[in-house]
Amino acid sequence: MEFAEVVRRRRMVRSYRPDPVDPDAIERIIATARRAPSAGFSQGQYLVVVTEQETRAAIATLGGEDGYVADGFLPWMSAAPVHVVVCVSEADYHARYRERDKLNEDGSEIDWPVPYWYVDVGATLMLLLLAAVDEGLAAGFFGVHRLEGLNELLGIPWNVTPIGVATIGHPAAEQRQGSAKRGWKPLEDVVHRERW
Ligand SMILES: Cc1cc2nc3c(=O)[nH]c(=O)nc-3n(C[C@H](O)[C@H](O)[C@H](O)COP(=O)(O)O)c2cc1C
Known about the structure:
Helices cover 39% and strands 14% of the residues. By secondary structure, the chain is an alpha+beta fold. It has one domain: 3-Layer(aba) Sandwich (NADH Oxidase). The protein has a four-stranded antiparallel beta sheet with strand order 1-2-4-3, sandwiched between helices. 32% of the residues are buried.
């Protein structure tokens, strides 16, 4: 599929058919996601791929699926045949930036202009979502507000932060829009040329 078409088609999908997903497609999606850039090539991004139904149900509970159902959505989290828990290790960035080529002249670690670990894990998530579309699949994302529940459930080390869960599967025919129905802001409100 053309790149522009992949980007255009990508929407957060919150309704899936129960059919399983080709495991080779998942491997290709993951291989694409791991090509995300990272500051200093720290590569602090990690993925936990979950297909077991019981575990997906437990993740859906942590994601507050009940609330979505109460709002009129189908139980899309537990129904999605694949969950990819997207994680980042801030510690990996500090370790990398304490290497000689990254230190300040006085030997101290840089003052981080922004938390690059969250920038990088966002790039990983985006590649994951786009790669799913490129495979003819659909993807969504949900935040989990009880993050430590995910660490515990999946044995994720305590110094690794799961930033949320991507759902992947075949989209159901009927889709219900979430916040996207608000529409896009006008381009001129978003893009400033030469200066803000
Ligand atoms: C960081 C982030 C967190 C999000 N969290 C949730 C979430 O918890 N539940 C959900 O249904 N959608 C979530 N979304 C999806 C957004 O609501 C969605 O991207 C937005 O409404 C635009 O729709 P579109 O992606 O289909 O264009 C999240 C998106 C991002 C980027």
